[in-house]
Amino acid sequence: MSDLRLDPINQQWVAIARNRRDRPMEFVPIEQLRQQLICPFCKGNEEETPSALTAYRSDGSMLLSDEELSNWSTRVIPNRYPSFSFRSTEDRDQPESGSQSCGPFEFNHCQGIQELIIPSPRHVSSLSELTDEELKLSFRVCRDRLEHAKSLEYIQHAMLFMNCRLAAGASLGHIHYQLLGTPVLSESLISRTTRAQAYRTKNGRSMLADLADWEIAQEARIVDLTENFCVVCPFASRFAFQVWILPRSENFDFTSCDEEVRNELALHCRNIVTRYEVTLDTPAYNLLFHTEPFESSNGQIGYFELFPRLTLAAGFELGTDIWVNPVAPEAAARRLRPSD
Ligand SMILES: [Zn+2]
Fold this sequence. Notes:
By secondary structure, the chain is α+β, with helices and mostly antiparallel strands. It is built from 7 helices and 14 strands. It is 26% helix and 21% strand. 32% of the residues are buried. Zinc ion binds next to loops.
């Protein structure tokens, strides 16, 4: 059983996830363990994982539950070692009681969802190894699962992300997206939403569209530019080679955009990963799909972020939340541009 505890000094939620201690990576040298494991995500090893929540054929059609071991291309399973507890399937659509106090702290029974989206039955170890077909279908399935999370009354926000390689937090080599739906909102999510809404009220436009326009006019940090997206190393990059993929239209929403636009986004993500691997010697990296809290969802802060894990956050960053970046974003953009 997990629970969520609120640190009143930093107004920060923490999930106490006791069952994660049982994860395969704990207490054993990871490289040694990886060599011994049968990959549970490869085709033929489906019984090593919990049953699929849903699975798709390569043509995009959904497999029936008793067909899940046949020719799947993308498979969605619950996380066996979740940070957030599950209720039984029958109870999942019902809201749970709210937060309670514990001395000066607050806690909340940690009811959320945590799913893994496996984008290929082949043993693919990076987004760059997905075929066009696998890449585009997996982004569609990500959209479908986010849409499903939105429909659950007790979920306030869902974070969709990919951790690739050990230094980025991956415990298995076969890449997968993760969707983590939470019953509470973090302070940073609330303040990000409030800032975006205040910006729109004051300027009549979305902050993201204005940022994209400004970066396009500046040119120096642009990595790539297509009809619907601006790919940029942001002016105030927290990490070396951090990349934002900013929608160029007002009110962009990942769950409702056209297939063509979603495919354009997927190709940008894979292109950046390929550039990281060529330029930076195959680093670990994270891909984040930033979405708004469901209640305030109106397309104001939907954007996408990638960064390689080249350095560790140290005492200063962890103590102050002020980041030291050793590579100027202008230099990073020059190295990541496709023409270089
Ligand atoms: Zn595998």
